[in-house]
Amino acid sequence: MNNVDPLTDSVIEVENLDFYYGDSQALFGLSMVFPRHQVTALIGPSGCGKSTFLRCLNRMNDMVDISRMNGSIRLDGMEVNSGSLDVIELRRKVGMVFQRSNPFPKSIYENVVYGLRIAGINARDVLDETVENSLKGAALWDEVKDRLHESALGMSGGQMQRLCIARAIAVNPEVILMDEPCSALDPKSTARVEDMIKDLREKYTIIIVTHNMQQAARVSDFTAFLYEGVLVEFGQTDELFVKPQNQQTEDYITGRFG
Amino acid sequence: MKQFCARGEPQVWIAAAALAVTLLMAVTLIVVVMINGLGAFWPQRLATLDLNSGQAVLGHILKEEPLPYKEGTRLQLKTGNRDLYGLDFRWIERSKIKQIHYQDDVAVVERESYGDFYGLLTAVVLPQKTVQSGNLWQELERGREDADQVSDKVDKVTGQIEELNYALERRYKQIQKLKYEGVPETSAQRRNLKHEVDELQREFQVLVGKQHALESELHEYRAHFADINGRGVEIPLAEIMRYYKPNTMSLFERAGVYFGKLLELFYTNPRESNTEGGLFPAIFGTVLLIFVMSLFSFPLGVIAAIYLSEYAGNGPMVRMVRIAVNNLAGIPSIVYGIFGLGFFIYGLGGTIDQLFFPERLPTPTFGTGGLLWASLTLALLTVPVVIVTTEEALSAIPGGVREGSLALGSTRFQTLVRILIPMASPGIMTGLILSMARAAGEVAPLMITGVVKLAPALPLDGQFPFLHLDRKFMHLGFHIYDMGFQSPNVEAARPMVFVTTLLLVLIVLTMSGVAIRLRNKMKKKYTFGTF
Q1: Which of A166, A234, B86, B363 has the most crowded CB, counting CB atoms within 10 A?
Q2: Closest-CA residue in chain A for B400?
Q3: ipTM for the complex?
Q4: 3-class SS shares of chain A: helix, strand, coil, % to 5
């Protein structure tokens, strides 16, 4: 760890966040910060609200008609939970990688530049450069550099997931949200994605939801433990896993429930 | 037994049997239509039947069947020569026939009117000479070549006359309009028009004179034929479409005649109240109808489905609309026809006439059946199919792809255009195929919205505005109905009914085939690989 306390330099600050699906409340008064250029893992048993929380950060829950959000999320001082926010702009700053890889039925090249094209960037040299950098960033370049214009649907599962990560970093976001990115991958692919996450920390802030305790311990700098919509404990991963402050956290990470 | 059932084998057998029955029915239908339709053009041998009475009968033997209420059998013959006998089919009892033999010199002559002539060539009349002996057929052929040159000239003059007619028609309409608007006859505008009309009419008279002269020249080329009993007929050479001597032909020559006749179907106009000649206007009308119909129903259906699936949500109102759309597909097609007549023709068409063509009333322009209204009626009929299939295709796209696109900062519209529509395109194509097949098979709604037995002109021609959507048109489906059930000469029309049916099936198959190929191409491009 650095000498400077990373908690003082945060990208996202969440304050008193409540979230509802219709009448049922999913998140209860969450408050925490996500430190810049660090990997933060969100852990907790199924249904504890970690995915919901993640999706609040780039307003993906807007797609659910009956959802409602109270409280404040600030991204570099900009209020995310506000009606006047440009959601498109927000999502460009906060990229997302999903549990199941979801490449578009286009070529590998077009998948990577999709974010740029919809933003109206069509200059060939810019696109070419972005493709190379993004694919290198996602540790995929060497495998696909000779078949950039073939369909992305012909790749392996692990490659597809890395392509989705490349697609997310192509638009140069501040933050990348990852919703259990390795749950559909085999151990080898998982290891590659984890290595990549560690490298990406140099440039991006990463927030990763995971079921896998070992993974959280391996890749993250900070860990937040959620239980039934409440933030139980948040701290540096080394400390949280070695000597958790809370009994529930200890029970969960030692495998007594969840 | 119980164990046997539990393994599920009988269920598989029942399913297989159901499939087999369905296939069998479809195949039987196609085979029957093909045998009857494709067999009709094969040049068969002409039999001479010497009767006990001393008379002879010449014709194709079609079938032999037992006499009703009596011992013995009877033969059905196609005897042709409708101008001589009145009917071209005859039943003859077997007991009245002395012998059946096949003469080498009898010929089949296909001509423009009265159907085929069966008999012998006796003389060829040419402008300078009359040939009664020697190689008559060679003379006939030479005469036809000369006559063809004359008839080409006639066609050219006829074409000029048609153009003049069109020009006159346009000026008559202008005059009609000016008269309606109250412009006096003494105005310069009307005097000019009148002058032009006079000029055109003078030209018209000259051309008609020329046409008459050419026609009488053409009439100097004639051939004399005699039937088997010696009754003579004179046929102008220009009216002979084709002739052959079926009893001396080789298999190869027969095949030549067969394919010649088959090809003729595609490019010639019908003759003899549709029982002979080609099907070109009907084929053209059918394809154009389906095409124009697709232009209306396809965009409308796809856009409606996109709204329903992507934007409308899932409230009670939307659910009701969805049920209503599904039920629309089940309404009897004649009801659509009546709606088309009431709403499109009388309502819309009548209004258009009053607003834009009031001078021509009470003669309707758009207020009567036509290609446009028939297409719109069929579009209405097929739009539910497009909506349902498109909606299904859109909802089959995994939600992750939508989220993936939105998470990259795209708007819903960008996601729709760049991701969802391409991915749904195979499904959308399926909808198009289904709607085209449905439209091609509909006859009932067309009968009251613009189909006719014989259309004077194609809906597409070289005169501005080229595509005449207000014109009435011919259609293969209606052609089948008309020949099979409305024809004065049902026996003669029978082969054409089958041929037309076959052709309609072929057109539907071809159009679907093209669409299916397109769909498969898209499918390959847009389907997901598996993990």
Answers
A1: A166
A2: A102
A3: 0.87
A4: 40, 25, 35
CB contact under 8 A, B407 and A95: yes
Nearest by CB to A157, which of B313, B525, B531? B531
Residue pair B449/B374 in contact (Cβ under 8 Å)? The answer is yes
Q: What is the pLDDT of residue B328?
A: 85
> Which residues are registered as beta bridge partners of B50?
B56, B99
When scoring A94, A99, A153 by the number of chain B Cβ atoms within 10 A, the one with the most, hence best to mutate, is A153
What is the share, in percent, of chain B residues with pLDDT greater than 90?
Answer: 20
DSSP label at residue B460: B
By CA distance, what is A111's nearest residue in B? B405
B493 neighbors B89 (Cβ within 8 angstroms) = no
Measured distance CA(B341)–CA(B336) in Å, rounded: 8
Gap between the Cα atoms of B374 and A150, Å rounded: 45
* Closest residue in chain B to residue A87, using alpha carbons only: B409
Q: Which of B400, B408, B525 comes nearest A105 by C-beta?
A: B525
Cβ-based contacts of A182 with chain B (< 8 Å): none
Find which of B397, B408, B418, B425 to mutate to test the A interface (most A CBs within 10 Å of its CB): B408
Do the Cβ atoms of A73 and A80 come closer than 8 Å? Answer: yes
Q: Which residue has the tokens 């053009």?
A: B41
- CA gap A130, A247 in Å, rounded: 47
β-strands A94-97, B117-125 pairing: unpaired
The residues that bridge with A12 in the sheet, in sequence order, are A34, A75
Q: Given this model, what pLDDT does residue A257 score?
A: 66
| A-B Cβ pairs (cutoff 8 Å, strict) | 75
- Give the pLDDT confidence score for residue A175 in this predicted structure: 92
Measured CA to CA, the distance from residue B531 to residue B521 in angstroms comes to 22
Confidence of residue B132 (pLDDT cuts 50, 70, 90): confident
Q: State how far the alpha carbon of B63 is from the alpha carbons of B34, B90, B183, B247, in Å.
A: 18, 11, 70, 19
Phi, psi for residue A101 in degrees, rounded to 5? -65, 140
Q: What is the average pLDDT value for chain B, to the nearest integer? A: 87
Report all structural domains of chain A as residue ranges with CATH numbers, in order of start: 6-253 (3.40.50.300)
Q: Cβ separation of B403 and A167 shorter than 8 Å?
A: no
pLDDT tier for residue B490 given thresholds of 50, 70 and 90: confident
Q: For chain A, give the percent of residues with pLDDT over 90.
A: 24
Residue B529: pLDDT band with limits 50, 70, 90: very low
Indicate the pairing of strand A230-236 with strand A222-227: antiparallel
Interface contact flag, A88 B423, Cβ < 8 Å: no
Q: Is B374 helix (H, G, I), strand (E, B) or coil?
A: helix
